[in-house]
Amino acid sequence: MDTLTPSSTVPLLRAEAVTRQGPHHPVNQDSHFADPACGLFTVADGMGGHRDGDLASRTTVEAVSRLAGLPASGHDMQLIALESAVAQVSSGLFAEYLAAPEQDVSGTTSLSLVISGPYASCVWAGDSRLYLLRQQHLFLISEDHADAAGRLTCAVGIDESIDFGRRTLERMPGDVFILCTDGLLKGMDETMLANMAAEGTYGLADRLIARSVAGGSNDDITVITVWAEPHDQAR
């Protein structure tokens, strides 16, 4: 199986990961994983209103995390391995639903960032998001799999197959990546997100969640921020 591993081609990355359970939720349905040494980061948001969203998100993130630290492969093969791991989880969840449809589906969003060499790739299903702050401008890299009413059109566990979104870009010095579940944008807008990201990287994940909560978000929120150290600091 093609997997991910630390490599000399992976830049010296820094990351901060923070999650916060919604005050009215019995469990946090978000899950996450961050491994700067392997250049692998992922968030998942269990589907509210359905069965075992927390289990679906946790199972998906655990499958992705098992790719870290195993034999290396090229960037494209890493993405294939990632999609395969998540697709296997999705097939298993949907098979459970088919076996007992009266128990409802168990689904989750999934969004992962893979960084190796000069490339950064995003693979996703659902409406968790990847943003890129580049030269003081904020870009949305992922594209929500949702209809006009906000209902998910693609996610892990809700159909026989899964049609991933995937985007690859070349990194530039100073890039900052922000992975987040949809709870973050329920208490702030993208303009505020961009302004806060431009203020500094360290502590950004905590600051974003605090601002979203202050802005009224009652949802589970997970944020991972990722950036490469300048060469003079990396040494």
Cα gyration radius (Å): 17 Å
The H/E string reads EEEHHEEEEEEHHEH
The order of strands across the largest sheet is: 1-10-9-6-7
Our measurement of the CA-to-CA distance between the termini, rounded to an integer number of angstroms, reads 34 Å
Helix and strand composition category: alpha+beta
Outline the biggest β-sheet. 5 strands, antiparallel
Low-confidence stretches: 1-8
* Range of helix content: 25-40%
Count every beta strand, where a strand is a DSSP E run of 2 or more residues.
10
Mean pLDDT: 91
Residue share in β-strands = 25-35%
Organism: Roseibium sediminicola
Protein name: Protein phosphatase 2C domain-containing protein
Domain PPM-type phosphatase: 14-228
Pfam families: PP2C_2
Please provide a written account of the structure.
- The structure is a single chain.
- With 235 residues, this protein is an alpha+beta fold.
- The protein contains five helices and ten strands; from the N terminus they run E-E-E-H-H-E-E-E-E-E-E-H-H-E-H.
- The chain has helices spanning 53-65, 75-99, 190-198, 204-214, 231-234, and strands spanning 13-20, 30-35, 40-45, 110-116, 119-125, 129-134, 137-140, 165-170, 176-180, 221-228.
- It has a five-stranded antiparallel beta sheet, covered by helices on one side. A five-stranded antiparallel beta sheet has the order 2-3-4-5-8, with helices on one face.
- A hairpin with a 4-residue loop joins strand 2 and strand 3 (40-45).
- Helix 1 packs antiparallel against helix 2 (75-99).
- The longest helix has 25 residues, at 75-99.
- The radius of gyration is 17 Å and the shape is globular.
- The chain starts with 12 loop residues before the first strand and ends with a helix.
- Residues 1-8 have low confidence and may be disordered.
- This is Protein phosphatase 2C domain-containing protein.
